[in-house]
What does this fold into?
Amino acid sequence: MDSTISRIITIISIVLMGVSALLGLLFYIGVITEEPFIIWAYILVGTGAIAILVFSVMNIFSNKKAAKGSLIGLLFVAVLLFISYLLASDEILIFMGSEQFFEEGGAISPNTFSKLVGTGIYSMYVLFVLAFASAIYVEIASFFK
It folds into this structure.
């Protein structure tokens, strides 16, 4: 079973690389425009996202210990995003060139722009501090071993 899945993945990877190379060749000799590249990028991103979800679910059901670790990680991310959302301000900052987005009927509102961007920034700050602290911890722990 495992070798069958490995062969299928190898074949799919070769086909995807072949189509990508063919599109690149056709683009550079002037047969196609950039539009097929954009469509192909969507296809590759979708294929990658589906593969990640499928293999993650397969791993969770095949290994109960990995499922516990994955759920703890997801819970941590959910709590981090929730706290970051609560800390983020919904005040819209006005800067040069941004007036066109805030007119009546514009695409940006306090909830879709400022609050979510602030959430992302606070999350990034926390993850940066955790990454920095873990790197320092690893160095200090390896020094005392």
